From TrEMBL:
Pfam families cross-referenced by the UniProt entry: ART
Protein name (database record): NAD(P)(+)--arginine ADP-ribosyltransferase
Organism: Rotaria socialis
Ranges for region Disordered: 211-249
Listed Polar residues bias regions: 211-223, 233-249
Length: 280
């Protein structure tokens, strides 16, 4: 699943192998590979720009993500399968960024975070210099979530009380507070008028089997781009990626090599990216 990423992320196979070894008894009825795909996302290594979560989210936020996402298809199959097996979690979560983003978030406006977003349910975690820290320009998001995924049992850092927001999560800016160098922004997850991540008609399929079982349940999802016709009407929806503070986190034979027979299709449909995979 990560072999196509080696030209982009040279060390990804070594870290994927570490993840699979740590996921021999996965929770939440996930397979070992599915759990490892989440753990791999939570890991970090040097140089930071070659970490999987940094590179993936930069790709999701790119204007030309249709082509840029192609090497990610096999990994995304495992990752999305795993996340959609986890229950939705309505929770207040927090996210810290070592930047002043207050001017980008205007009270009353609706924004979209196109990347996956790691957050914590414990505000004290943000005190760490790896996240928010205590000095310099910082932005802390207080997020009232409806559809977070609890990934603590699959995270490389379970003590961080980590939850994950899906790509293309929409929020309304409820308010903000300027405390000198600390800017606090309150966001509430909202349901888009036109779903940004949704089931669509099957055009292609993806399976870990050369000849998939007849009882496999096929599913597919699309991630709308900023130019989607759903928002062509001058609505106040803005697209933001809350830039993550780069964490120097350090740290599957099956996850790295077994999916050569997987088939996946992608096409452009009125400015949308279509990703197709199977839920076993």
């Amino acid at each position: 699943a990560v072999e196509p990423l080696v030209p982009i992320l040279p060390d990804v196979q070594a870290h994927a192998y570490t993840a699979i070894l740590k996921c021999k008894k996965p929770a939440d009825k996930l397979t070992q590979d599915e759990s490892a795909s989440i753990m791999l996302y939570t890991m970090g290594w040097d140089p930071p720009e070659e970490c999987l979560y940094v590179a993936l989210n930069n790709t999701l936020r790119a204007i030309d993500r249709q082509n840029a996402l192609r090497p990610w298809y096999l990994y995304l199959r495992l990752f999305l399968n795993a996340l959609f097996r986890l229950p939705l979690l309505a929770v207040t979560a927090y996210r810290g960024v070592k930047l002043d983003l207050s001017r980008r978030y205007i009270e009353g406006e609706t924004i979209v975070w196109w990347g996956f977003s790691s957050c914590t349910t414990s505000v004290s975690v943000l005190k760490s210099e790896l996240f928010l820290g205590k000095i310099g320009n910082r932005t802390m998001f207080t997020l009232h979530c409806k559809s977070a995924r609890d990934i603590r049992k699959h995270s490389f850092y379970p003590v961080e009380d980590e939850v994950l927001l899906m790509a293309a999560t929409q929020f309304k800016v409820m308010g903000s507070l300027d405390q000198g160098n600390l800017h606090i922004i309150q966001l509430e997850e909202t349901t888009p008028r036109h779903p940004l991540l949704q089931p669509v008609h099957i055009i292609g399929s993806l399976s870990t089997y050369p000849n998939p079982p007849s009882d496999s349940t096929a599913a597919s999802f699309d991630i709308s781009t900023e130019k989607s016709k759903a928002h062509s009407n001058k609505s106040q929806i803005k697209t933001h990626g809350a830039t993550a503070s780069t964490s120097k986190k350090t740290g599957l034979k099956s996850i790295t090599g077994q999916m050569s027979d997987v088939k996946i299709s992608a096409s452009i449909n009125e400015g949308k990216i279509l990703l197709f995979y199977c839920l076993d």
